[in-house]
């Protein structure tokens, strides 16, 4: 799942939780009798249940959103110390959801295939990218 899809999924989960809380509270307000002591018995159970769900939903949102933010921060810090060509390759990979074929990387950056090959090899030694072979095609992935 790409970084943008993770963010959208996290926001969808958060919105669903908010709707659940709103509709459940409206249900309890409308359907439970006000003058009987039965409604008092439900309230102490409902609050901890919603609090538990809130903690779980918050954890899920944090889980989905945080890797994207941490990756961007790491790459910004690392790119300060890299040459311009390597910075160009990283920014192109980021625009392609952190995965791209080597040929497409060459087209997008405007660098020659040989230059891209050498840059990728240097970045591979530094541990910034990984290479997967798919037949004769090299698929470049950001590791961070």
Task: Describe the secondary structure blueprint for this structure.
Elements: H1 3-31, H2 38-79, H3 84-95, E1 99-101, H4 102-109, H5 113-126, E2 129-134, E3 137-142
Antiparallel strand pairs: 1-3, 2-3
Helix pairs in contact: 1-2, 4-5
Please tell me about this protein's structure.
The protein has helices at 3-31, 38-79, 84-95, 102-109, 113-126; strands at residues 99-101, 129-134, 137-142. It is mainly alpha-helical and 144 residues long. It folds into two domains: 3-79; 84-142, Orthogonal Bundle (Arc Repressor Mutant, subunit A), CATH 1.10.10. It has a three-stranded antiparallel beta sheet with strand order 1-3-2. A hairpin with a 2-residue loop joins strand 2 and strand 3. Helix 1 packs antiparallel against helix 2. The model has no long low-confidence stretch (mean pLDDT 79).
SSE order, one letter for each helix or strand = HHHEHHEE
Residue stretches low in confidence (pLDDT < 50, at least 5 long) are none
**How big a fraction of the residues is strand?**
5-15%
* SSE-based structural type: mainly alpha
Count helical runs. Answer: 5
Biggest sheet layout: 3 strands, antiparallel
Mean pLDDT score = 79
Overall body shape:
elongated
User: N- to C-terminal separation?
Assistant: 15 Å
What's the total count of β strands? 3
Global Rg: 24 Å
Helix content: over 70%
How many individual domains? 2
